[in-house]
Design a protein that fits this description.
Length: 118
């Protein structure tokens, strides 16, 4: 569980933090506020983990051994978990959540129209 950035009550689970976004924020049941882990920060963890897995896959292929790949995957997963743990939750105002939901809904409608017209 993680602490709410507004009231510091420990109410937000790690899975909820991982999936949080401005349109689908984590919700604190104590102070009724919204928060999210910034997507850009999470993206850095994904990129580094993907690079480590790719490099370990190349090493495993070059050495014809599975151990470098397994080690690389373990290091990448550990790094991603540590990075996710390190990212701070940021508070969101209800107006920001509403705007993000409307924006994502309009993006979904635009994508649907683009698919239907294609
Ligand atoms: Zn709170």
């Amino acid at each position: 569980m993680r602490a709410c950035p507004t009231c510091q009550a420990v109410t937000i689970g790690l899975f909820r933090k991982w999936l949080s976004s401005p349109s689908l924020p984590a919700y604190c049941s104590v102070c009724r506020s919204y928060s999210h882990a910034h997507r850009t920060s999470g993206g850095v963890g994904v990129v580094v983990a993907a690079f480590v897995i790719a490099a370990s896959g190349i090493a495993a292929s070059a050495w014809q051994a599975l151990l470098p790949l397994l080690t690389g995957v373990a290091v990448a997963v550990s790094f991603y978990a540590w990075h996710l743990h390190r990212i701070e939750l940021e508070p969101l105002a209800p107006a920001q959540v509403s705007l993000a939901r409307k924006t994502e809904a309009m993006g979904g409608v635009a994508l649907l129209i683009a698919c239907l017209l294609n």
